[in-house]
Amino acid sequence: MVQPAQAKIVYTPTHKNLPINKYFYLDLNHDSVNDFKFYVLAYCTAAGENCDGAVNLYRLRSVNGAVGQIRSNIPFNSALVAGAPVGNTQQFLNQAKEVMGWCFGRYSGGCYGPWATSRSGPVDHRYLGLKFKINGKTHYGWARLNVWVRWDTASATLTGYAYETIPGKAIVTGKTKGPDVITLPPDNPGSLGHLAQGRK
Q1: Are 161 and 28 in contact (CB under 8 A)?
Q2: What is the pTM of this model?
Q3: Residue 124 resides in a domain
């Protein structure tokens, strides 16, 4: 894949409501190879006594990763604020499945993870810090989401994503303007490929 001339950051605006109980695939650098996938879980038994709501992230290659921490043996993805650096100084998880937010039970149970809503309202305008490989070299990126996770429901909206074209260079979450940024049309279907829903 030929990188855009003089580009350092490539940003793609979007507004995608992630499907419920179905995988959603993300190709960060538009090379037609998916890098991560999301799964939004919303489930209740028929009687409603046992429920689960969750948003999970999966890396699709062993070299990929997301900023996060392991707590009580569960890998949780960080919900970064705008302006946070994403680079080799961060801790990246290397689990096949990682949890953004998870709630279980209904009248008992609990909510866990930085993206879990609980009673405080939705987690909006937060960022996943991501790393992946292009031609064998590490690149950094981010994905911005609005997430709602409760005991019996969950939803997530992807509102933009970006990556740094210079190998090994850190990227700043939310940076979409400046001399080193190229903005692609939303869900650009051109020669660079596009964000894929349901494509493996």
Answers
A1: yes
A2: 0.87
A3: yes
